[in-house]
Design brief:
Helices cover 45% and strands 12% of the residues. By secondary structure, the chain is α/β, with parallel strands linked by helices.
Amino acid sequence: MRYDLVIFDNDGVLVDSEPISNRLLAGYLTELGHPTSYEESLRDYMGSAMHRVHDIVLERTGRRLPEDFDDVFHGRVFAAFERELEPVPGAVGVLEKLAADGVAYCVASSGSHERIRVGHRKTGLDRFFDDGRIFSSQDVGKGKPAPDLFLYAAERMGVGPGRCVVVEDSPLGVEAAVAAGMDVYGFTAMTPASRLAGAGRLFGDMAELADLLAD
């Protein structure tokens, strides 16, 4: 194993939440008078913290989103998670292999702590992640594409950036990992490989990851 720590993004990498959350985000923005398609939501917001949604809407329209936007949106997302959310195919096997081999791993997500934990409980991934392995953009001043979250996770896990690899599926996440001085494996299941060009390696099936990490 060439790395001492594997840092996973959460949405779209461990839990198959991106189709759910971006469908709902596009619908809610459209409902509020900011017409947004599912494809546009993926392009503009996938992998980002909620403040980016507010910033982009304000920049484009000069109008602020409602003060309760985050609460309403998360309420809709969590309800949909309870109905629909599943782990990303292959994610359980990768985590089982890392745990069996004694390889350190954690999750560093733009999502809130509540969102991470709701998703993990619903999918059964909570058995792999105690509180010491969960890091959120809430923990740092800036979310992705700033490197702060990945650097914070590595520091808390006691591993230098050069010994970390990040598994990401969004351009913002890849940019953040590169800025943190970490290797990046880009997961292309939902994102065109061309948009993850900054990653050192690209792969499309999560079941392949354990073998790729061992190369």
